[in-house]
From TrEMBL:
A GO-annotated cellular component: extracellular region
Organism: Drosophila lebanonensis (Fruit fly)
Domain Chitin-binding type-2 residues, every copy: 113-183
Keyword annotations: Signal
InterPro entries per the UniProt record, alphabetical: Chitin-bd_dom, Chitin-bd_dom_sf
Signal peptide extent: 1-23
Protein name as catalogued: Uncharacterized protein LOC115632667
Any one GO molecular-function label of the UniProt entry: chitin binding
Pfam families per the UniProt record, alphabetical: CBM_14
Length: 267
C-alpha cells in the first residue's frame, strides 16, 4: 500500500515542484507512518539546484534571526539587528580551493561534512524507498524520492529561509534555531555504523566511505539514508513493526561491531 500511495502522491509533488516557483501547499493522507492525521508538504524556493547555497536566498535580512550564516560557501557572516533592521557582518572567507567550506553549525570554515561540502550535493543523495527524507547536512532542505519507471529518483526541496525541516512531521515547521539545525543529526564513527534518524525512527542511516582514488585522497565516512516499510521503525539494527517495537527494551551494546572482542571504552 505504501508504494501505491506514494506513486500517486510523490510524482504530483515533484511535477509541481519542478514546474512552478510559487509556494505550493498540498494536503494528502499521510503515506509514510508519520504520526499525524494529515501531512502538509510545503515546497518553497522551488528552483532545484545541486550547488549548495544561493546568496540571494541566504541573507540575514531574509532569515531575520541572530547567529552565524553562510551567505555563500565561501563567506560566513554574523546576523545582527539594529534600529535599521537585520544585516550581516562578514566574519571570514573560506579557502574552498583547499577544501574548507562555510559551516554555520560549527561556526567555522571546515573540511567536515556540511551543507557546502561536495558530498552534500543532490547528486549524491540515494535512498532505498520513495518518500520524504531530511537532508543530512542542511536542516532547511529535504528530499522527495519517487519512481520514474523502475528508477528511484530524488529531487531536492527548500524550506523558506525562516523555517527548517522537521523529519517527525514531514513539514518545514521548526525554526533555524531548533535542535535539527544546531545539533548534528547523525554520527559516523566507523564504516558500517547504523542507527535510526533521531527525529523519525522510520528512517535510518548506514555509514559508508568514499572510494580512495589515489594515495593522497582522504577517506570520508558519510550517512546513506534508508527507510523502513510503512508501519515499521528501526530498532536494534532491524526494521520492526512499530507496535512490537514499543514492547522491546533496546539493548545497549558494549562492544564495537567491527571488533567484537573489544569492550567500548577500553580500545
Amino acid at each position: 500500500m505504501l508504494t501505491i500511495e506514494l506513486l500517486r502522491i510523490v510524482p504530483i509533488l515533484v511535477l509541481l515542484f519542478l514546474s512552478s516557483c510559487r509556494t505550493t501547499t498540498i494536503h494528502r493522507n499521510n503515506p509514510m507512518g508519520i504520526p499525524l492525521n494529515q501531512t502538509v508538504y510545503e515546497m518553497k524556493n522551488c528552483k532545484s539546484r545541486t550547488s549548495r547555497l544561493d546568496s540571494a536566498a541566504n541573507s540575514c535580512l531574509r532569515r531575520q534571526s541572530p547567529g552565524p550564516l553562510c551567505e555563500t560557501c565561501e563567506l560566513m557572516s554574523l546576523c545582527v539587528k539594529n534600529s535599521n533592521g537585520w544585516f550581516g557582518i562578514p566574519l571570514v572567507s573560506c579557502d574552498v580551493k583547499n577544501g574548507y567550506y562555510c559551516n554555520a553549525r560549527l561556526g567555522v570554515c571546515s573540511k567536515d561534512l556540511g551543507p557546502c561540502h561536495p558530498l552534500a550535493t543532490a547528486d549524491n543523495f540515494k535512498s532505498n524507498l520513495p518518500g520524504i527524507f531530511p537532508d543530512p547536512y542542511d536542516c532547511q532542505r529535504y528530499y522527495l524520492c519517487y519512481y520514474e519507471g523502475s528508477t528511484l529518483t530524488c529531487v531536492i526541496a527548500n524550506c523558506d529561509v525562516s523555517k527548517a525541516f522537521d523529519a517527525s512531521t514531514g513539514q518545514c515547521s521548526v525554526s533555524p534555531q531548533s535542535a535539527a539545525c544546531t545539533q548534528k543529526q547523525f554520527e559516523c564513527p566507523y564504516v558500517g555504523h547504523i542507527a535510526a534518524w533521531p527525529t523519525n525512527p522510520n528512517i535510518y542511516y548506514v555509514c559508508k566511505a568514499t572510494v580512495k582514488q589515489n594515495i593522497n585522497d582522504t577517506i570520508i565516512i558519510y550517512p546513506l539514508l534508508q527507510r523502513c516499510s510503512d508501519g515499521q521503525i528501526f530498532v536494534d539494527s532491524f526494521c520492526r513493526d512499530s507496535s512490537l517495537s514499543r514492547r522491546l527494551a533496546p539493548a545497549k551494546s558494549t562492544t564495537r561491531p567491527d571488533r567484537p572482542n573489544c569492550v567500548l571504552g577500553s580500545c
